[in-house]
Design brief:
Blueprint: E1 4-5, E2 12-13, H1 16-44, H2 57-60, H3 65-72, H4 87-115, H5 119-137
Antiparallel strand pairs: 1-2
Helix pairs in contact: 1-4, 4-5
Length: about 140
């Protein structure tokens, strides 16, 4: 996992796992950004109907969370998936994709470490995957 200089070009030479992680992360970030742009355009143009119309947003932005949820009927937790076809929730697909990109990258480099029998890095990847999946699951909550 060391980076050395390519003496002829003066550019760093990346290891196989660094190249794979970077290329998958690049693809994930670009596709996630595209999803965000498309969802935003679908919302502001009215192509997708919205639970909270664009012109009503300034009225609810400053509300405390409980009041916002009560007034808008917005879902909490993973129940936003039930409203994915609505303009104001479609953007969450891009956000979820960007959040999951690091998971996909870890899954992409895991076989490289396993093939090398680099069990410490396999364990670190599996541990990082487990922590991220547990955090995303909603099983961990604070204050309630």
């Amino acid at each position: 996992m060391n980076i050395s200089n390519n003496e002829s070009a003066g550019e760093p030479v990346l290891s196989e796992e660094q190249q794979r992680y970077a290329s998958w992360l690049n693809w994930g970030a670009r596709s996630g950004l595209l999803m965000l742009i498309v969802a935003f355009l679908a919302y502001v143009t009215g192509w997708l109907p919205a639970d909270v119309p664009l012109n009503e947003l300034p009225k609810v932005w400053g509300l405390p969370v409980d009041a916002y949820l009560k007034q808008t009927g917005a879902p909490t937790g993973w129940s936003w998936l039930t409203r994915i076809g609505r303009g104001d929730f479609a953007g969450l697909i891009g956000i979820a994709w960007l959040s999951a990109s690091s998971l996909i990258c870890l899954l992409a480099v895991l076989p490289i470490y396993a093939r090398r029998r680099d069990w410490v890095f396999v364990a670190l990847c599996v541990g990082a995957l487990a922590v991220q999946l547990l955090a995303a699951s909603g099983w961990l909550t604070a204050g309630k």
